[in-house]
Structures are given as structure tokens and as C-alpha cells.
């Protein structure tokens, strides 16, 4: 149960704003801000906002102020963040207990309709919202932005950690604010070791296994190019949720994208309309096109689909053989594309390798050099080869994304033990030590790249 302690008040044109503290049942205090509309009459629907890792409630001021045009809004610093107490366990059971307590406190406000309470979360906050739905927190509608449904699958696909992304996430929180459960797995999570322990940790913080039981209306917002949490994460959630659902894909996300992106106004307007639709006036008729995909670059509009759009497979061959040791890399370039290609999904790179001396990982980075001499990182991926020796046929799954590649571009494949080999600024897969005798012989490679049958970007 959360208890209110007022700390001050402010005012905006269409809402009032009050700072407060919520007391959790384990003695931890969470700093919060309550926005209350000045128009209309109570009881109001309400929305709770969940911020990203390393963030604070003020990061969501723009979101809060937009939703406060018609909703009571509560934003709060997650435990271990901002001005809140406690430690960060990355959407562990304690944070989900906080989500339940915050929901119950908001639903009990005298000016809130208790059965009209929604949740909005981004990244870490989105993971908390989805997991709280699976664990039975009775949100009446939910929206999640650039987040995960399977934490291990997102950050350690094919048993190889996206070590740079993991390092950045963990280091966005002061070390003394990390719960012991996180500190215990930090080094293994970066080095891709003790994977059974990492899997158990991630499973407790994932929602995928339980989403098929969720009947709550959910709007999934995912970035076209998010190398931390690819398109497949929320597409999987969209397929599984049994209640009303929508999916919006556009130009925002973790690196190489940003949030807010160029479509922030559309994201907020879509979000407001969805909450109004399901919290205030549940509709009789379903949305005609529940899936929206905007162009890249964003041009102010999005293409509507009833189901995920059809794709075709573009096959690209990268001939040649290479032997790598240490920090060496192999770079292979294919011929120019004969038509515009707009990727949509996870590419598959097939190649034969011969491993010896303890070669631990193989990373692939796919880039495109456009006719305008611009280099685009189309996608990347990696595979853990620590337990392998001798000859193997490997398939490396690239990050699921949506990237337009113009006609006349040349695709280049870089193979190495890390992503910095492609560019020192590409920090997704860090250069971690390998045995001095480690070696890999690479055979010819074939790339199967899913692309929209009908590209929408120019």
C-alpha cells in the first residue's frame, strides 16, 4: 500500500502539478509528481508513467503534460533512480510490487475512476508494465515504448551478449544503487558467461511466456532501428496479446535512434487517443488498421495495415575466405543493389567456419554505402562460439529492424570478434579478450535479408 506525503504544488494551463512521496511497504520512499486536469469534472481516468533505466520522472514531462490534458497522471522515480530510495533490480519482483502499489494508490484517489487506470512505460519502464500485466496488476489499458518481451533474447541473442549495450545500461545507474541480484551477474552479463544464471535472471523480468493470457488493451510502440530491442520484441508481444491491440513502428528508439524522435507528437497523440478509447469510451468497432508503419525519414504520416506487411527475401552472396586471429577482421563487399530495398525483420547470415584455439565469438556487421556516399549500419549480430571447435555451418541472426537502402548502394559485410572492427564508434559488441591462439577460418557467406514487398520509404 502506498501512502501520500505532499511536498509542494505548481500550476500549468490545463492541469495542476503536485510533488509528493509514495511510501512502499518495505520502507522505501518513491518521489512522484501528480498532474490533475483543471478542465472537465471528476472522476477522471488516470495514467501512470514508468521511465527508462538511469532516468527520472522529469524525463517524461512532455508525456505527462500531454496526457494531463484529460487524465490524472502520476509519474514517479523508480526505486534507485532520481530522488527515490531503494536499489535497482531491473524490473525484478520488488519493482513489480511497486507497480502494484502505485496502481492501487492512484485507483484509490477520490478524483479518479478506479476502473480507468492505465500504464505507459518506456524501455525499463515498458518492461515493468508488461511484466506487471503478466503478474496480474489490473491496468485497464497499457502502452509500451521501445522495450522488450524477452530480455535474454533481446540482449544476448544466440548466447552472445550485446556487451556494449549491457554495459551502458548497467552503468547508467550508480554502482551503489544496484541491487545485489544485479551486481552478482554484471560481469557475466557482459562477458556472456554463466548463461544459465543470466537466463533465469532475465526470465523473471520478461513477459513473453505470459502475454498470451493478457486480455488488457495494449499499444506497442517500437522503433524502426533499435539495436538494443529489435522489432521482433514487440512484434512477438503484439502477436500474443489476446485483448485489443495496436502496433506503431517509426523513427525512435535506442541507438542508433533516439527518443524523442521526429514523430514524438504522433506518438503522444496516438497514445492519448488509445487511452481515451479504452479508458473512457470503449468502442463498439475495432480499429480498421491496427498496425501503423511510418516512413524513414519520417514525413508526418504512416501506412496502415490490418496485419504485419508481406515481405520478400533478398539474397546477397559475399564470396571469399579469410582466416582471423586476435583483432583481425574480414571485409567483403557485394555488387550494387538493382532496386530500392526496405528491410523488415531479422536477416540471416549463413557461412561455414573452422574454429581452433578457443575462438569465442563471431560478430557480423552489415553496412550499406549509398550512391550519395553515406554509410548506413543496416544491422548486426553475433554468435557465441566458446564451446565450438572444428568445422561448423553457422547462421548468425541479425537484429530485426526496418531500414531503407536506396538503389545503387553497395552492401559490405564485416566479420570479426567485435563490432568496433567495423567502426571504433560501433560499441554494440565490445572487444573482449580472447586466447592468444584463437583462430577462425571463414568460408563464403550468404545473406538472406527480409524486405517489404512494397517499400514505403523513399
Question: How do the strands and helices of this protein lay out in sequence?
Answer:
Elements lengths: L2 E9 L3 E9 L5 E9 L6 E7 L10 H7 L4 E5 L16 H15 L4 E11 L1 H11 L6 E5 L5 H5 L7 H9 L8 H4 L2 H6 L3 H9 L14 E6 L7 H10 L4 E6 L13 H17 L10 E4 L7 E4 L5 E8 L3 E4 L4 E7 L4 E2 L5 E9 L4 E9 L5 E10 L5 E8 L6 E2 L4 E7 L22 E14 L6
Parallel strand pairs: 4-5, 4-6, 6-7, 7-8, 8-9, 9-10
Antiparallel strand pairs: 1-2, 2-3, 3-5, 10-11, 12-22, 13-22, 14-21, 15-20, 16-19, 16-22, 17-18, 17-21
Helix pairs in contact: 2-3
Task: Write up this protein.
There is one protein chain. This protein has 458 residues and is of the alpha/beta class. The protein has two domains: 3-305, Rossmann fold, CATH 3.40.50; 311-451, Galactose-binding domain-like (Jelly Rolls, Sandwich), CATH 2.60.120.260. Helix content is 20%, strand content 34%. It has helices at 61-67, 93-107, 124-134, 151-155, 163-171, 180-183, 186-191, 195-203, 231-240, 264-280, and strands at 3-11, 15-23, 29-37, 44-50, 72-76, 112-122, 141-145, 218-223, 245-250, 291-294, 302-305, 311-318, 322-325, 330-336, 341-342, 348-356, 361-369, 375-384, 390-397, 404-405, 410-416, 439-452. A hairpin with a 3-residue loop joins strand 1 (3-11) and strand 2. Helix 2 (93-107) packs across helix 3 (124-134). It is globular. The N and C termini lie far apart (52 Å).
Amino acid at each position: 500500500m502506498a501512502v501520500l506525503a505532499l511536498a509542494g504544488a505548481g500550476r500549468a494551463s490545463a492541469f495542476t502539478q503536485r510533488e509528493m512521496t509514495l511510501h512502499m511497504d518495505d520502507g522505501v520512499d518513491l518521489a512522484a509528481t501528480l498532474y490533475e486536469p483543471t478542465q472537465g469534472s471528476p472522476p477522471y481516468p488516470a495514467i501512470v508513467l514508468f521511465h527508462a533505466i538511469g532516468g527520472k520522472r522529469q524525463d517524461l514531462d512532455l508525456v505527462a503534460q500531454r496526457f494531463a490534458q484529460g487524465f490524472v497522471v502520476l509519474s514517479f522515480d523508480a526505486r534507485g533512480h532520481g530522488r527515490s530510495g531503494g536499489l535497482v533490480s531491473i524490473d525484478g519482483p520488488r519493482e513489480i510490487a511497486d507497480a502494484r502499489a502505485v496502481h492501487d494508490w492512484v485507483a484509490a484517489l477520490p478524483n479518479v475512476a478506479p476502473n480507468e487506470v492505465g500504464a505507459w512505460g518506456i524501455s525499463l519502464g515498458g518492461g515493468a508494465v508488461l511484466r506487471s500485466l503478466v503478474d496480474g496488476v489490473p491496468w485497464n489499458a497499457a502502452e509500451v515504448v521501445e522495450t522488450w518481451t524477452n530480455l535474454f533474447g533481446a540482449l544476448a541473442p544466440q548466447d552472445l551478449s550485446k556487451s556494449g549495450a549491457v554495459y551502458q545500461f548497467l552503468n547508467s545507474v550508480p554502482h551503489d544503487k544496484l541491487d545485489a541480484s544485479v551486481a552478482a551477474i554484471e560481469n557475466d552479463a557482459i562477458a556472456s558467461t554463466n548463461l544459465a544464471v543470466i537466463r533465469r535472471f532475465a526470465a523473471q523480468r520478461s513477459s513473453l511466456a505470459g502475454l498470451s493470457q493478457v486480455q488488457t488493451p495494449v499499444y506497442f510502440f517500437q522503433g524502426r532501428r533499435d539495436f538494443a530491442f529489435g522489432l521482433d520484441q514487440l512484434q512477438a508481444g503484439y502477436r500474443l496479446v489476446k485483448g485489443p491491440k495496436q502496433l506503431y513502428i517509426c523513427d525512435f528508439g535506442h541507438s542508433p535512434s533516439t527518443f524523442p524522435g521526429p514523430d514524438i507528437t504522433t506518438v503522444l497523440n496516438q497514445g492519448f487517443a488509445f487511452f481515451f478509447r479504452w479508458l473512457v469510451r470503449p468502442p463498439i468497432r475495432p480499429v480498421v488498421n491496427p498496425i501503423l508503419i511510418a516512413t524513414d525519414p519520417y514525413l508526418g504520416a504512416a501506412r496502415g495495415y490490418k496485419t504485419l506487411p508481406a515481405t520478400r527475401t533478398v539474397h546477397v552472396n559475399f564470396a571469399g575466405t579469410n582466416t582471423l586471429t586476435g583483432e583481425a577482421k574480414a571485409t567483403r563487399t557485394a555488387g550494387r543493389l538493382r532496386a530500392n530495398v526496405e528491410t523488415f525483420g531479422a536477416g540471416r547470415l549463413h557461412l561455414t567456419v573452422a574454429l581452433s584455439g578457443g575462438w569465442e565469438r563471431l560478430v557480423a556487421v552489415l553496412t550499406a554505402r549509398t550512391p550519395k556516399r553515406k554509410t548506413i549500419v543496416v544491422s548486426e549480430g553475433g554468435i557465441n562460439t566458446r564451446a565450438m571447435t572444428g568445422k561448423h555451418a553457422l547462421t548468425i541472426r541479425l537484429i530485426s529492424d526496418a531500414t531503407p537502402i536506396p538503389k545503387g548502394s553497395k552492401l559490405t559485410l564485416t566479420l570479426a570478434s567485435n563490432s568496433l572492427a567495423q567502426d571504433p564508434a560501433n560499441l554494440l559488441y565490445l572487444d573482449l579478450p580472447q586466447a592468444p591462439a584463437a583462430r577462425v577460418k571463414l568460408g563464403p557467406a550468404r545473406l538472406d535479408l527480409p524486405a517489404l514487398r512494397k517499400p514505403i520509404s523513399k
